[in-house]
Fold this sequence. Notes:
Elements: H1 21-28, E1 38-40, H2 47-50, E2 54-56, H3 68-92, H4 108-136
Parallel strand pairs: 1-2
Amino acid sequence: MINQTSQEIITTAFAPGRVHDFRLDQDSGVTLAKQIRCLADASYQGLARLHSNSQTSVKRSKHHPLSAAQKSANRQLAQQRIRCEHVIRKLKVFRIVSERYRNRRRRFALRFNLIAAIYNLELQKILSQEVYCSLRS
Length: 137
């Protein structure tokens, strides 16, 4: 989970083996407050039943194409979710997510959390430099 405004990684969840993201979210035990708005991609279609303030894109099927209004709503949601995708891109630089993990499986969660902490630390450093530069001028 990522804070949309600050782009900070809030929490991570892991499971042994291959597990779908939505199942992992359900099994993690992390619950969101009702006032928090949750933006998710199309794979989280059942999220609206669990969290009323969630928004997912509408899937099209072979027999039910999307209307123009649904397409524009999906486009607006994608514009809001792009920050989350940028954070995932930053994590993939470390290659622990983008490639097959070939080390001890027990250490994956520890290493991924360390990478998330490094990312958050670098983000705080960048934000503090921006504040310092704005105070100087």
